Structure formats: structure tokens, C-alpha cells
Amino acid sequence: MERWIGLLARRGLRPGRQAAWVIAGAIAVALSGCYVVPVAPTVVPGAPASFDRSFSAASGAMRDQGLTITSEDRSSGTIVGKIEGGTVTASVRQQADGSVRVQFDANGVRDGGLMGRVSQSYDRRMGR
Q1: Contact, 103 vs 119, CB < 8 A?
Q2: How far is the C-alpha of 73 from the C-alpha of 52, rounded, in Å?
Q3: DSSP string, 49-83
Q4: What is the dihedral angle through the alpha carbons of 54, 57, 63, 69, rounded to the nearest 10 degrees?
Q5: What phi-psi label fits residue 28: left (phi over 0), alpha (psi between -120 and 50 degrees) or beta?
Q6: Three-state DSSP state, 17
Q7: What pTM value is reported for the model?
Q8: Are 82 and 101 contacting, i.e. CB atoms less than 8 angstroms apart?
Q9: Do 54 and 92 meet the contact criterion of CB atoms below 8 Å apart?
Q10: Which of 1, 67, 92, 97 could potentially form a cystine with 62 if both were Cys, beta carbons 3.0 to 4.6 Å apart?
Q11: Residue 35, SS3?
């Protein structure tokens, strides 16, 4: 540090200002080495799910599997989707213990594997 102060003194800076310039320079150098890596939000398996996150995941899972959403009512926790003459209803409910329960029901759906794919899509969106 004395070396830097001596260099600044030769340039004609007063002693009080020399230390300020050295400190300011040190701070600038230190901050220039800082880089914050942007991190995508992560889902922690086993963490309690929020109602909003579960509702969005259920709606997205139905869209992922080709259903056309005909009704989405967040206040009642109900999502209705149609596909080839059939209907899939998702019911999202907040439980007394704070957990969220999501249930998918099908009516008139011809594709026997659809409900399994919707459930897998939901799990994937929830990070499971």
C-alpha cells in the first residue's frame, strides 16, 4: 500500500487524498472480480407445494397433453379440459394441514393412457 501512496505522492496528490484514492481503487478492483451467476428457480423435491404453483402445474400438464382448457376457476380450484369428445377435470384443494391435494378425473376419454401422461406431466412440472 505504501508503494501506491508513494506513486500517488509523485503525481502531486496530498496525503489525505492519497489514501482515499488507494482505497477507492482497491474497492473498484475487488468489485470488478465479482460476478453473480443467474440461477433458474429450483424445485426442492418434498417441499410443500403452494396452491398457486399446484394449480398452474395442473393446468399446464393438461395443456401439455393436448387438452383444450374450457374452464379455469382458481377460486374453486377447478380446471376443465376437453379432448376428442372427452373431458378431464382437475381439482386442486388446500388441505387443513396446509398441503395441497390435486386430483384428475376423466369422463368419456377414449385414450386409456391419457390420465397417466397428465399425471406424469404434472409431476414433472412440480419437480418430482
Answers
A1: no
A2: 12
A3: PPHHHHHHHHHHHHHHTTPEEEEEETTTTEEEEEE
A4: 30
A5: alpha
A6: helix
A7: 0.62
A8: no
A9: yes
A10: 67
A11: coil
Contacts for 9 with CB less than 8 Å, ≥ 6 apart: 15, 18
Q: What is the pLDDT along the chain (128 residues), one digit of tens a residue?
A: 566 556 555 665 555 665 665 666 666 555 555 444 455 444 445 556 799 999 999 999 999 999 999 999 999 999 999 998 899 999 999 999 889 999 999 999 888 899 999 999 999 999 88
CATH number for 51-125 (one of 3.30.530.50, 3.90.180.10, 2.60.120.560, 1.20.1250.20): it is 3.30.530.50
Three cell numbers, residue 112: 386409456
d(CA 15, CA 12): 9
Cβ burial of 38 (10 Å; 0-12, 13-18, 19+) is exposed
**Cα separation of 78 and 101, whole Å?**
12
